[in-house]
């Protein structure tokens, strides 16, 4: 029998002791007047010997036992309920003899208990509860990891995330902060008149991003459908045409791609769409939003991530996409052949998938962006990497078709070498959009799984007229970088291969 089996066997015997004593080891409800955080805040009012109507009044608390120390006639326990910790003191002369004995015989670290008693302050100044009654809330049949020698393997941490949260309150706090990240984002947009909407997560054609989708089957319609890869971009644009001037959605998206510290197959994104605004308006709003998020969630604007330090309060630089690639690699993406691009990537020892011009250009850019600390906006992207954005116009307000590679009104913030969002002056020309979809269809048919699917019903909507608009999206990667964590670390339950 393994050591873990022996420990479980011992705890099963203690479970029987509880049952024989008439105590339900898994009751539906236990006495509890306060969470432990509130117990601390209300301590003075209820402590014995203090003035007030509740002085010396008996209260009930509940939580997981994280430590037991002492022996003989007095025990000290530390309770944790996820909101705070609190000390319980169990004295032999303060409990019924059978309850004291049952506690010493049947209770282990890791058990969840309810204790009833009066508040007092120990000689060491510790706020405590002197226990006069206790009952089991949930008997733990397996032990917690050791504090210093427990969960150290990252795979095991992700696989048994609940134990990580129990043993590491700072990890638990990270997800309260992540929830606030989205709360602040939501409040920021609502304060500026954006309407929160919900759009389909199952789509006949995916749109709004370039990514390989997950495919599933709709039994009732006998129809193959896809999990969305964007937060309803093409749907929210339909709402722009329908007369909803400002919308946003926060929701899950799914991309059937590889994993990395900055990529996951399932994650949360936010996208907004803003009628009668362009990418210049979007950049101003995004700077304000990012600074607001930073201050509200982290209390600062200056951060460190990997080897980078950046300050969101600084002036945001403008970086030209093509010029930055040429500056760093010597490759002019407007003139270089695919063969020359591949040679440069090989020389740089950069892996790439696909050999079409779009993928090679994007791979060169991703290599270059890794050296940019930011905060900065990348602008003047070539049209082939942004099939949903308007063209940049020249001074005479005509499309810059004389350029070797047309550029679009797209902007991407860069911090710590990473892209942390994307926005456009959205394309609303139905003829131009239809032609760009056709180019994407060619890429799909040539084997590029990340190329964008055509949506002819979307083009039909544009033919009815959609106002000029700015669209924007950011997601969990921004939070991960501000928290100085990998994206995987900021997911509560990242996808794991079954053992």
Question: Which descriptors would you attach to this protein?
Answer:
alpha+beta; elongated; 15 helices; BirA Bifunctional Protein, domain 2; 2 domains; five-stranded mixed beta barrel; OB fold (Dihydrolipoamide Acetyltransferase, E2P); nine-stranded mixed sheet; 24% strand; 499 residues
What can you tell me about this protein's structure?
The protein is α+β, with helices and mostly antiparallel strands and 499 residues long. It has two domains: 142 residues, OB fold (Dihydrolipoamide Acetyltransferase, E2P); 268 residues, Bira Bifunctional Protein, Domain 2 (BirA Bifunctional Protein, domain 2). 34% of the residues lie in helices and 24% in strands. The protein has 15 helices and 21 strands. Strands 6, 10, 11, 14, 15, 18, 19, 20 and 21 form a nine-stranded mixed sheet that branches. It has a five-stranded mixed beta barrel with strand order 1-2-3-5-4. β12 and β13 form a beta hairpin. It starts with a helix and ends in a 17-residue tail after the last helix. About 1% of the residues have low confidence.
């Amino acid at each position: 029998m393994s050591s873990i089996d022996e420990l479980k066997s011992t705890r099963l015997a203690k479970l029987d002791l509880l049952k024989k004593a008439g105590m339900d080891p898994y009751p539906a409800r236990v006495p509890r007047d306060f969470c432990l955080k509130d117990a601390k805040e209300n301590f003075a009012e209820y402590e014995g010997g203090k003035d007030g109507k509740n002085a010396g009044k008996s209260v009930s608390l509940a939580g997981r036992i994280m430590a037991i120390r002492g022996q003989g006639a007095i025990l000290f326990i530390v309770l944790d309920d996820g909101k705070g910790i609190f000390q319980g003191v169990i004295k032999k002369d303060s409990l019924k003899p059978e309850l004291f004995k049952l506690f010493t015989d049947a209770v282990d670290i890791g058990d969840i208990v309810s204790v009833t008693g009066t508040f007092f302050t120990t000689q060491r100044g510790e706020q405590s509860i002197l226990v006069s009654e206790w009952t089991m809330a949930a008997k733990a049949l397996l032990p917690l990891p050791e504090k210093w020698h427990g969960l150290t393997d990252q795979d095991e941490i992700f696989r048994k995330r609940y134990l990580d949260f129990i043993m590491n309150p700072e990890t638990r706090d990270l997800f309260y902060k992540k929830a606030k990240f989205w709360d602040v984002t939501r409040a920021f947009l609502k304060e500026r008149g954006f309407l929160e909407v919900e759009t389909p997560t199952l789509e006949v054609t995916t749109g709004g991003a370039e990514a390989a989708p997950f495919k599933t089957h709709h039994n009732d319609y006998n129809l193959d459908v896809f999990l969305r890869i964007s937060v309803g971009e093409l749907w929210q644009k339909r709402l722009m045409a329908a007369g909803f001037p400002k919308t946003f959605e926060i929701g899950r998206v799914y991309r059937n791609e590889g994993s990395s510290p900055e990529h996951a197959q399932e994650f949360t994104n936010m996208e907004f769409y803003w009628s009668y605004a362009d990418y210049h308006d979007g950049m101003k709003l995004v700077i304000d939003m990012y600074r607001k998020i930073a201050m509200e969630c982290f209390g600062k604007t200056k951060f460190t991530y990997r080897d980078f330090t950046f300050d969101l309060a600084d002036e945001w630089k403008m970086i030209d996409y093509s010029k930055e690639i040429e500056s760093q690699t010597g490759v002019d993406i407007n003139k270089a052949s695919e063969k020359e691009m591949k040679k440069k990537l090989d020389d740089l020892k950069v892996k790439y998938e696909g050999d079409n011009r779009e993928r090679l250009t994007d791979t060169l850019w991703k290599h270059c962006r890794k050296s940019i600390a930011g905060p900065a906006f990348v602008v003047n992207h070539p049209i082939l990497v942004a099939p949903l954005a308007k063209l940049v116009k020249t001074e005479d307000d005509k499309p810059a078709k004389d350029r070797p590679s047309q550029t679009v009104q797209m902007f991407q913030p860069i911090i710590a070498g990473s892209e942390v969002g994307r926005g456009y002056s959205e394309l609303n020309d139905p003829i131009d959009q239809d032609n760009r979809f056709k180019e994407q269809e060619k890429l799909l048919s040539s084997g590029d799984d990340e190329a964008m699917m055509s949506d002819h019903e979307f083009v039909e909507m544009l033919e009815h007229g959609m106002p000029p608009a700015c669209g924007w999206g950011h997601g969990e990667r921004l939070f991960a970088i501000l928290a100085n964590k990998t994206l995987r670390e900021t997911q509560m339950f990242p996808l794991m291969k079954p053992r």
